[in-house]
Amino acid sequence: MNRLIAAKMVTLMPVTLESSSSFTFTSCSKIAFENLTVGAGTVLTVLSIERKEGKEDKLRCKVQGHHEAAEVAIPLSVRGQFAECEQEECFTLQQILSSPLLNSRRFRFIGKKCDRPLVLTPVYQVHALMNLRKEILKFPSSLEVDVVDVTEDCKDVTFEKPLSLTEVLSEPKESFPVVVNILEPPKSFSLLKCNWMPQLSLHQHLVFHKAGTTGMVILSSMKNRKTQKYFLVSDIYGGRFRRQPREFNSVYELYVASLQAPGLRVSVTKNSKEVEGEGLPVLSVGEQLEVVCHAGKSESVEALLCQRLPEPVILPLYMQNHFVEVLTENRKYSLKDLGKKFSLPLDIKVVSLDPKLQNDPLAGLPCLRIESTLFEPTILASFPHSPEYCFEIPAQWISMHVSFTTEPLPWHDNQPPTCHVESVTEVTNTFFYEFCKRDNTDAPPPPRPPKSYNDTCKQKPREHQSQRGSPTESLANLTLNVKKRPQAMLPEVSMDFIQ
Fold this sequence. Notes:
By secondary structure, the protein is mainly β. The chain has a domain at 4-84: SH3 type barrels (Roll), CATH 2.30.30. It contains nine helices and 31 strands. The chain is flat.
């Protein structure tokens, strides 16, 4: 080790003296100071740094292997060959790379044989701009280049400041509207299926009218022979909807639906015969039932009490049959109206399109389902050649860099045009699945569905009850409305934000 003064050795400490860690070192040769001599190989542990006004700072150390009173105070000006002793404290890679005191020290792996010491140094990626190019230049910090400060000589040179879409959201309101230049276009077009997305190319100019948060809903079409579609719909959508009756395939599903909306009425769409010993009643097509309450255990079987004229009927929760919801009203709703009365998921049908849209993507779809609602940070944008036709960019879903320009806005006398906003954006399956994963990060796993009727008939009612457990405790959040497709696992969401 090179000959160092004690003050230099202190700067190499991997941790501060205020931490719980101790710093232990040894002198490779004999050192003498004042009236004391420390022999070669003596192990010393740093206790503190003594600072007295008008005197030299000293390193107060404990002599290892001696009584606690065996302490020495070494002046920081003392020179010698010092070596740090190996410490028991362990560090993670993140701690080493994030600490300026650690990232230049030597380490070894714990529990693994490594003869050579390791020096871990972080390598950063530097993003830079050139005044003659609009692209963002990226290079690693380990690249050996000669850099000369020319700030004073190039004061008249202007650089474009790159902003991500999330950074644009934090810009003050006074910055809008503004013409922006795309410095880095989106790398992928796999999330949105709209006509403006492919036009977001390098050096393309856009008009950013404003930035903020928009209430939106995610709609899905019923799966048919072709494909299933998904849409991101803004709460300004001007179309009207009617509720669609839900379909249920078991009494258990009726029970869960009744918890969400008391007073549920259904019509039987499949005949069922009475099964002796199983407690299954006779149901005929066309009979209407109104769910009254959960009847608890009847003959060791969880059951549902329903009203069937002229007498009530008890249906076991494990009973399989087909039912369709009976709707007593035929009102037309806007998205805001739906949010005031109903919870999700909700089946609806478009009965009148948005008159402000030239081509409404929801046209011709027989049935839709509101899957979820969300507050989405958006940027209202348009192309300079048609500034009145606007679209909302979901800033968190598109990776793109732009720069604000000083170009004039594409309208006269500071009179912005009336914006016609595309309130419906078709999204891909990838977008929907990514949204479900993000929305269900902390959600518990979905409950196990009840056993089928065929499996139930192979067991006695008491045996079946002991294996199924209590559905009233763990299955209250089961999603309903399954129509010829698997149900996406989304939690029940309130639509109060569009009220």
